[in-house]
Amino acid sequence: MTSDNSRKTNGRGRLFDSVLETIGDTPCIRINNLGPDHVKIYVKAELFNPAGSVKDRLAISIIEEAEKNGELKSGQTVIEATSGNTGIGLAMVCAAKGYPLVVTMADSFSIERRKLMRFLGAKVVLTPRTDKGFGMVQKAKELAETNGWFLAQQFETQANAKIHMNTTAQEILSDFEGENLDYWVSGYGTGGTVSGVARVLREKRPNTKIILSEPANAQLIGSGEVQQRNEDGSPSVGHSAFEPHPIQGWTPDFIPLVLQEAIDNEYFDDLIAIPGPVGIEYSQKLAKQEGIFTGISGGSTFAAALQVAETAEPGSVILCMLPDTGERYLSSPLFDSVPEYMSDEEEALSVSTPGYHMPPQDS
User: Fold this and answer.
1) Do 72 and 347 contact (CB within 8 A), yes or no?
2) What DSSP character marks residue 21?
3) Are 100 and 246 within one domain?
4) What is the C-alpha to C-alpha distance for residues 185 and 92, in angstroms, rounded to an integer?
């Protein structure tokens, strides 16, 4: 018999009792066509989570920790302010566990996000974009206090960094066991990923340099301005260094308490500012040159990783976080250059043979 070199799969070797058991264990994937030849770049593709983003981890942690400590009662409504990914993750978790969910979200975020949450059974209350992230957080607090709902508090809860310490960081240690890991690169939204992973890397891989990134026109950390807070750690005002930016999921208009841990403990070795258009460019390049479909935040983090790669020592290994899938950006600037009908080149192909071509598009 000749050997069969065809691609095969063997299954996961287990059966799952719930979609929630499939959260985590996302792959680290080698980048082959983008970046310099003297380094190895890997991306941790959080788009492989069941609801398509790293926030699935946060969502399950918030709900399960609240169940354990008695803060969340059976059948109680959950409410949270979100730019989308946390809300989508919470909608999946609440659907699986039987909790009603209400989310508040500024109307500046992509329409797909609202529809995905509603499709999963959540109610979405929009707030004016002029009130920014601070406004949607305040609206969630008002609704929670008025109705006796459980407020998830993703920006302050200890369940946030904890899940990344217990899952994301452990996966990285396992996947790079016996291998170099010279740099780990991440952006921030709540700050849970960087605070949780850094707790572990600082102890277990102290030689790994941690690189954090934020939008070039919204450098909250880079400004050095201290965030003003309420007694519970939530922001009392928006941050003056914030400007609207297209990197959805990155950098609200305040420094979250969860992120403050990384700042106070000097968990990162360098801070890189990325312009929004550059993040869009590299999201598109990852899709077209690597076949990896991530959103603007992923493109922005990857752009920061490429900056690290330029000056890294030969043989360096870089791991970059890709927070989500690109499918929730269809109505965002990420897809502005993608036509709905056919490009001129596609139309020329259509009419290059006699049959089955579309009539000219109405102008």
Assistant:
1) no
2) G
3) no
4) 28
Active site residues: 55, 297
Place of tokens 């340099």: 209
Tens of pLDDT, residue by residue, the chain (363 residues): 556 789 999 999 999 999 999 999 999 999 999 999 999 999 999 999 999 999 999 999 999 999 999 999 999 999 999 988 999 999 999 999 999 999 999 998 889 999 999 999 999 999 999 998 889 999 999 999 999 999 999 999 999 999 999 999 999 999 999 999 999 999 999 999 999 999 999 999 999 999 999 999 999 999 999 999 999 999 999 999 999 999 988 999 999 999 999 999 999 999 999 999 999 999 999 999 999 999 999 999 999 999 999 999 999 999 999 999 999 999 999 999 998 888 889 989 999 999 988 887 765
Cα 169 from Cα 177, distance rounded (Å): 12
Domain shared by 190 and 303, yes or no: yes
* Residue 340 to residue 26: CA distance in whole angstroms: 32
One domain, residues 249 and 318: yes
Question: Is 250 in the same domain as 191?
Answer: yes
Q: How far apart are the first and last CA of the chain?
A: 61
Bridge partners of 106, per DSSP, are: 127
Do 61 and 130 lie in one domain? The reply is: yes
State both tokens at 133. 């992230």
- For CA atoms 11, 13, 18, 24, the dihedral sign is negative
Residue spans of beta strands (DSSP E) within the chain: 28-30, 40-45, 78-81, 101-106, 123-127, 150-151, 183-186, 209-215, 270-274, 317-322
**Side chain identity at residue 92, one-letter code:** M
> Which residue matches tokens 């752009």?
303
CATH number at residue 137: 3.40.50.1100
Q: Half-sphere exposure (CA, 13 Å, Cβ side) for 361? A: 11
The number of helices, as runs of H, and strands, as runs of E, in the chain is 12, 10
Clarify whether residues 184 and 300 are in a common domain: yes
Q: Which domain holds residue 183?
A: 19-48+158-335
Q: Do residue 62 and residue 29 come from a single domain?
A: no
Q: Is residue 177 part of a domain?
A: yes
Domain for residue 164, yes or no?
A: yes
Which two structure tokens, joined as six digits, stand for 211?
């690189």
pTM of the shown model:
0.94
209 with 226, same domain: the answer is yes
